[in-house]
Amino acid sequence: MASAAEQMAQSMNLGAFSKATELKARIWFTLGALLVYRLGTYIPVPGVDATVMGELLSQHSGGILGMFDMFSGGALGRMTVFALAIMPYISASIVIQLMTSAVPALESLKKEGESGRKKLNQYTRYVTVIIAIFQSYGIAVGLESMRGSFGGAVIDPGLFFRISCVVTLVGGTMFLMWLGEQITSRGIGNGTSLIIFSGIVANLPHAMASLLELGRTGALSPVFIISFIIIAGAVIALVVFIERAQRRIVVQYPKRQVGQRMFGGESSHMPLKINTAGVIPPIFASSILLIPATISGFANRNGEVGWLQTIANALAHGQPLYMAAYAFMIVFFSYFYTAVVFNPEETADNLKKYGGFIPGIRPGANTAAYFDYVLTRLTTIGGLYMCVVCLMPEILISRYGVPFYFGGTSLMIIVSVTMDTVTQIQSHLLAHQYEGMIKKSRTKGRGR
Which helix (DSSP H) or strand (DSSP E) does residue 255 occupy? Predict the structure, then answer.
């Protein structure tokens, strides 16, 4: 009976999908926009030798450039127009979000509703341009000083190259920001997240081919490859479970009489996610820890081992100090970012303003203390979960020689974006079914 019911529900969903023309148009628009993005990752920046750039990036793959290349879908390694990807926009969004809790003027804009949100989005775009200009100019200057076995990375260094590189990279970032907004409004899912998602997923086939090639040559045993696939499935299930898990706090609203009618009296719930901070803590932690390795890789060109190189070696991937610092910073940023995005006092005041209360907890300061109590324990679980997911690939790479980075930020982004996109598709299907039911009821009413 259960299988028959599932088949019936699946056939209804397929039937609804075949009739949902708007949903199909949104999906095709999203796929087309992502195809444009992937094509742009192969358009090179003028004046850069792609061969030398690929050689240099392979040497610095353990630094921050390797992480950015993963998020850009290989665009940084090929030094294309989308080399900065959407990361300046992500950084600007985080900066504006942090400033809204520190600057009273921005905090008041956040409370103004739709108009305030539009102004904050405009400020985010301005900050994106500033960050992209600084990053692209730093890349242009760095490229001029890079030399590989085939010569310099830049064919004709000079002021003209720097200007053209800055204009090209900033223009690529702004185009991706616009493309992400178009996907959000005219497609399915969050456009910015889908662009990062497609960049990460684009590297998976090559990574799996490398893994199978190592198994074919005998570098990795078949037992290990099978065990790895099973562990990968278990980690994905863990990520899905934690990202969907939430603590539901019961909220009661009192009854009130308006005229001769009674309103309210119902109970609701306030969902608090276990991982409130999302993927921000691993990104912050890995970016900070990769700075010494990146600086030492560019500064140490004569083979001299200085104090910076010593620190970089101690903080290299797979080293005990790196893993301990990585876990500590993930937990720290989990608490820090959760405190920024969720204000217990403000939430308790809003609840009190609308007459809601938690059964057994007095409104006001006691409610805020209860929110803080619950959120602290949820954040502890979320921080430990992120430590497990993010440290697992470090162990696999350093101890077992797995040829690609599985887990951590990339896996969390893939799972969360997939879940969000599937949820939005289901919402569109449900809305389409309701529209069909309303049209049928109206047709029957007119026939009578």
Answer: strand 255-258
The tokens of 207 are what?
Answer: 């990574």
Q: What pLDDT is attached to residue 249?
A: 87
**H, E, C per residue of 15-73:** HHHHHCHHHHHHHHHHHHHHHHHHHHCCCECCCECHHHHHHHHHHCCCCHHHHHHHHCC
Two tokens at 89?
């926009």
Q: Computed from CA positions of residues 57, 60, 62, 64, in that sequence, does the dihedral angle turn out positive or negative?
A: negative
Range with the largest mean pLDDT of 17-26, 110-119, 292-301: 110-119
Helix (H, G, I), strand (E, B) or coil at 357: strand
- What is the per-residue DSSP string for 272-287? EES-TTTTHHHHHHHH
Q: Domains for the chain: give ranges and CATH numbers.
A: 23-184+194-202 (1.10.3370.10), 203-443 (1.10.3370.10)
| CA angle at 404 for the pair 398 and 406, rounded to the nearest 5° | 90
* pLDDT confidence of residue 226: 85
How far is Cα 215 from Cα 201, in angstroms, rounded to an integer?
22
**Per-residue pLDDT tens over the stretch 385-405:** 988 888 887 777 777 666 556
8 A C-beta contact, residue 240 and residue 416: no
| Amino acid, single-letter form, for residue 50 | A
Report residue 441's pLDDT band, with 50, 70 and 90 as the boundaries: low
What is the tens place of the pLDDT at every residue in 61-86? 555 566 667 667 777 777 888 888 88
- Check pLDDT > 50 for residue 163: yes
Residue with tokens 């609701």: 268
Nearest 10 degrees: Cα torsion 117, 122, 126, 129: 100
Q: pLDDT tens digits for 320-334? A: 888 888 889 889 988
In sequence order, the 6+-apart residues with CB closer than 8 A to the CB of 415 are 236, 239, 240, 243
CA distance linking residue 41 with residue 173, whole number of Å = 12
Question: Residues with Cβ < 8 Å from 88, sequence gap 6 or more?
Answer: 128, 131, 132, 135, 173
The strand pairing partners of 251, in sequence order, are 268
Q: pTM for the complete prediction? A: 0.77
